């Protein structure tokens, strides 16, 4: 499962999508029907959301666009949701034929709720296990269709310290909630705050190697870190998530990490302890 997850994360980095989608016709039960997907952007759980609508045209390009826009809007608000998680959940909407899909993105971008009014998921425990699938032949033109999507999403978000919950929608369909912890990076005085200064944080030998590598390369993603340090992709990803969580590195839209001011401060302090 881990090896398969590595391959998926490698393949699934966000790419620039087309704003205008060319309409094509397919002999399929899930061919375009002009349905709309709504993205709701919230400033708080109690606020009135900003609504953005996307129209369904060609299925493959539509799924890519919805994934990219969800990733973009969540990260614009400060979220850290991995692209592979969003992509797998969006592709799973094909089982609902994109019926009444709503993507809700909440404050800080680290809570995303994706709902539909399709047939729903009867056995939620089996749905997150590899190999259980209801994908029909026409769906397999657009997705793998082997029951790997939800398990990959669940494992990926848990590697980031988050969670994925699956619930029934009100009358029919499914609601999937993706949540990541929100970290605070703001420096505060020792008397008033709990956030440690960069000098007070201790890194493991492997975490230090990852940080040094990113400093040397300027930017690096999980696959590059795994290759250079001869570690598994899941381990590289976990260490990057940790370093990002304490504010030493930051990620761009392509998933590559670079050093932050806080990370540079840590390195300067680290090297200052060595006498020449």
Automatic annotation (TrEMBL):
Ranges in coiled-coil conformation: none
Record Gene3D superfamilies: Histidine kinase-like ATPase, C-terminal domain, Winged helix-like DNA-binding domain superfamily/Winged helix DNA-binding domain
Matches recorded under InterPro entries: HATPase_C_sf, HATPase_dom, His_kinase_dom, Sig_transdc_His_kin-like_C, WH-like_DNA-bd_sf, WH_DNA-bd_sf
Molecular function as annotated in GO: transferase activity, transferring phosphorus-containing groups
SMART domains per UniProt: HATPase_c
Residue stretches making up the Histidine kinase domain: 85-184
Protein name: Histidine kinase domain-containing protein
Naturally occurring in which organism (per UniProt): marine sediment metagenome
